[in-house]
């Protein structure tokens, strides 16, 4: 393996470390599986021992009547990791696409997330059951607390106690693992203070994953360093940049230079950088060509 780059703001140093690795391990395209070079990982091993694919299809803001086809295209392209959430309101369509695929359930990874209004311990299992029913599966590979902010059940007011200490919510996630409804549990959008607040409790199961925004404009080097030292895998949503910043990321001169050198696209360079750095990349697209592009790096 090669050196971890501490932040994408120092992306220029990739010209000395990243290029030789990819050039020496030029990948051969194949339509049924990811095409990482020998220097890049196709999977990571979680603290549970489970292997999680290093690139996933993100489904945030994916519209109805688009998400099903996006999932089918992704599975055909070689994706084996689908990132869902209850609040995305598209899990039923995802489940239908998964059912219609020829990929056995054991061969793909499904993540979902507990929404803010369901943090009360008595609401966790029912919310999980709704996701399981819509997704058409009897277990999730990974279940995350979506945000470190708890709301009342009607979603209008903060739940001060559960926001201050998410341990009661976490205990219910641990119980879902015991019941076999979830294989791994983790968090999302937790900064260092928030995750320290959780792990200060006597947890039976440590967080396997923390899913946060990571990209050129928000590289999060301190959180990445702590996560590596603590055995928590970081997942990067908005890996190409959030909203209008995607175009700016893809047009960075150093990214375009690396892409030209390696006969890759700018998106492939950035996604490969995330994997090189030791994080999971969650690119989102409904455009078939881009879905394929994002996994073949």
TrEMBL record:
InterPro entries: AKR (IPR020471), Aldo/ket_reductase_CS (IPR018170), NAD(P)_OxRdtase_dom_sf (IPR036812), NADP_OxRdtase_dom (IPR023210). Residues 58-295 form the NADP-dependent oxidoreductase domain. Keywords: Oxidoreductase. The keyword Cytoplasm does not apply. It holds the Pfam family Aldo_ket_red. One of its GO terms (molecular function) is oxidoreductase activity, acting on the CH-OH group of donors, NAD or NADP as acceptor. The active site is at 88 (proton donor). This is Aldo/keto reductase. Substrate binds at residue 146. The record marks 113 as: Lowers pKa of active site Tyr.
């Amino acid at each position: 393996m090669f050196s971890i780059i501490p932040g994408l703001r120092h992306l220029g140093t990739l010209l000395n470390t990243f290029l030789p690795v990819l050039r020496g391990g030029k990948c051969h395209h194949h339509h049924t599986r990811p095409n990482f070079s020998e220097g890049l990982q196709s999977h990571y091993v979680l603290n549970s021992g489970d292997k999680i694919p290093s690139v996933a299809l993100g489904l945030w803001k994916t519209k109805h009547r688009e998400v099903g086809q996006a999932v089918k295209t992704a599975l055909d392209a070689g994706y084996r990791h689908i990132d869902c959430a209850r609040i995305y309101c598209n899990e039923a369509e995802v489940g239908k696409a998964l059912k219609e695929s020829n990929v056995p359930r054991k061969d793909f990874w499904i993540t979902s997330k507990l929404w803010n209004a369901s943090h009360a311990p008595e609401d966790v299992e029912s919310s999980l059951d709704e996701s399981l029913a819509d997704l058409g599966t009897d277990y999730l590979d990974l279940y995350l607390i979506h945000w470190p902010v708890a709301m009342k059940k009607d979603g209008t007011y903060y739940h001060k106690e559960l926001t201050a200490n998410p341990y009661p919510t976490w205990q219910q996630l641990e119980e879902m693992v015991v019941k076999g409804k979830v294989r791994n549990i983790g968090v999302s959008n937790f900064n260092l203070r928030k995750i320290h607040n959780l792990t200060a409790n006597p947890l039976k199961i440590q967080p396997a994953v923390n899913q946060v925004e990571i990209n050129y404009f928000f590289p999060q080097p301190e959180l990445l360093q702590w996560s590596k030292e603590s055995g928590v895998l970081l997942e990067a949503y908005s890996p190409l940049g959030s909203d209008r910043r995607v175009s700016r990321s893809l047009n960075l001169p150093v990214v375009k230079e690396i892409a030209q050198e390696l006969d890759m696209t700018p998106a492939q360079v950035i996604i490969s950088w995330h994997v090189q750095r030791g994080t999971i990349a969650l690119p989102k697209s409904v455009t078939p060509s881009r879905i394929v592009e994002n996994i073949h790096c």
